[in-house]
Amino acid sequence: MIRIYHGEYQQASRDAYFVALSGYKNPVIRRLEGKTLTIEMLIQTTESGLLFESAHVVAIDNLFTSLGKKQKQSKAYAEYINKAKCDVLLWESKELPSGILKLFPNAAITQFRIPASIFSLLDALGPENAKKTIPIFRKLIESEAPEIVYTMILMRVRQLLMSKDGVTITGQKDWQIARLTRQAASFTMEKLLTMHNQLYSMDSSIKTGTSPFTLAQHIEQMLIAI
Fold first, then answer.
1. What is the rounded CA–CA span in Å between residue 21 and residue 25?
2. pTM (2 decimals)?
3. Domain of 137, in residue numbers
4. Number of domains making up the chain
């Protein structure tokens, strides 16, 4: 069986991936990194027999994300994965294009999308807008990990800094760029830099164990102070 976990919501996809791996009973799980994987390694790993052990499972991280637009190589890897004599689980940190997914007609494919409520929070970021952002945030962390909210806020602040500084933001559609431009206009450059520094400081204090607050509490304090 082939299972594919992909999508922009990395934390959810990663969690599901590990839950699936933990569901195997006494398997030999072979972990591979897509960035360093070769066709020869793939063939050897998926076709090798284990005479006195349970059927093995092959788990591959970021194979097609690493290959990018190399269609010929992607087709070659897919061909051997489809012929594998064991279960193969693929985790991709990004959303895979339909062209790649079509290479696996019999795979169980799960896509993880970032909840719309996170984008509602990001779009609501603005000076003195805590009355709107705090309720959204508190509702959001009832079901979502603070880490994904933190990551998305950091990404949005970086985009706003780029927009404020007149830097072209790649990978965005015209309407998204227009929205970021309007949102950036409501901030001063000083405020955006302060937010950016706060986000890095809270991450550092959480990782080093020097903060008495949780990540969620840090984020809420920042939202109030905007």
1. 9
2. 0.69
3. 116-225
4. 2
Same domain as 131, residue 59: no
Please say if the pLDDT value at position 52 is more than 50: no
List Cβ neighbours of 137 (8 Å cut-off, separation of 6 or more): 121, 149, 219, 220, 223
Q: Do residues 72 and 156 share a domain?
A: no
Q: Residue 34: which CATH number?
A: 3.40.50.300
Cα 144 to its chain centre, rounded Å, is 13
* Same domain for 57 and 133: no
- For residues 107 and 187, state if they share a domain: no
Please write the tens of the pLDDT for every residue from 191-225.
Answer: 999 999 999 999 889 888 898 999 999 999 999 99
